[in-house]
Amino acid sequence: MRTCDLCGGSEFRPLPFYYEFEGQRLRGTRCRRCALMFLDPQPTPAQLERLYGKDYFTERPNYDRTQQEVKFIEDGQKNQALNELRPDKFTDYILARYPGRAFRYLEVGCGPGYTLKSLQALGWTTHGLEISVHAADFARRELHLPVVTGNIETTEDFHENQFDLAYMGDVLEHLLSPAATLAKFHRILEPGGLLVLALPAVLNLPAVRLGFAAYGLLGKERRMDIPPYHLYEFTPATITKLLNAQGFELVELRNPVKPPRHIRLGGSLMEKAAKLAGQYPTYWLNKLTGRFGDRMFVVARNAKPV
Ligand SMILES: [Zn+2]
User: Fold this and answer.
1) 125 near 105, Cβ under 8 Å?
2) DSSP secondary structure letters along 95-150
3) DSSP state of 231
4) CA 177 to ligand 1 center in whole angstroms
């Protein structure tokens, strides 16, 4: 029988949405004990392999920009451009708090390795793990970076206390066992080492919570019109519990909402209208309270004994 990845419980409540994948229904589910949300059943490892076929990484520009990057390199100004840091939430946060510190750093989901390369220029020791064969090859061949092709759940490439900083963006919700993955970070990060996670929190939005309640009352459920990429849906409460359970203490949790113009609209005309009407109140509610956002930026410290 399936047990909850966070608390080990086995009493679940169905949520009013599901995915259809290869003739199977994968249902949104919430653990009654700890409120972790996940799909039940999960896709099998073989199904996941089909789900993340070649197209996933070549057709989604966010995941693999390698072809563009190859052109950019051929166009010249290579080294100067490569050493230039492109600021983002993660580097802004770390460089502001730890100026001048050279970390032993692991980036999970490093793509073609541009961020790793620029952090190396700051004196950091950088390692990468990347599931796209194409992007990982590029990082090794063109940027001479120690990037391993693989999956954080199955890789055996890293050893105890190897790193003092790790970053993983938009990966945890795709994995079969987030708890086992955090346990792995607990092992490969030294005592006091930092783990930074970026992840979605879509089911944390007030509009989605209200929608669930309404669907529940009406006895309706919604078939999702995308493949089942997210095996888990986290909230600030459940990600905090999961980190604590695997030996991390929370340093910071930001829960912003995407500005309205960045929210992609889908569904029927009525659904589009409802989403638009919900966006601005949600945006300002989030600005005022710092809660109910649909993104999370989480910093946690490894609390294992020295
Ligand atoms: Zn649970």
Assistant:
1) yes
2) HHHSTT---EEEEET-TT-HHHHHHHTTT-EEEEEES-HHHHHHHHHHH---EEES
3) S
4) 13
Residue 30 Cα, ligand 1 centroid: separation in angstroms?
8
The count of other CB atoms within 10 Å of the CB of residue 51 is 15
The alpha carbon of 11 and the centre of ligand 1 are apart by a number of angstroms equal to: 8
Best CA proximity match to 297, nearest among 193, 169, 186 = 169
CA of 155 to the centre of ligand 1 (A): 26
Distance, in Å, from the CA atom of 79 to the CA atom of 94, rounded to the nearest integer, reads 24
Ligand 1 centroid vs 242 CA: distance in angstroms? Answer: 10
Note the pLDDT of residue 260. 65
pLDDT at 276: 63
Q: Distance, CA 184 to ligand 1 centroid (Å)?
A: 20
User: Distance from the CA of 27 to the center of ligand 1, in angstroms?
Assistant: 16
297 bridge partner residues: 198, 254
Least confident of 23-27, 79-83, 87-91, 294-298: 79-83
For the cut 80, the answer to whether the pLDDT of residue 100 exceeds it is: yes
Name which residue leads in pLDDT, 68 or 296.
296
Q: In this predicted structure, which of 16-20, 72-76, 134-138, 236-240 has the lowest mean pLDDT?
A: 72-76
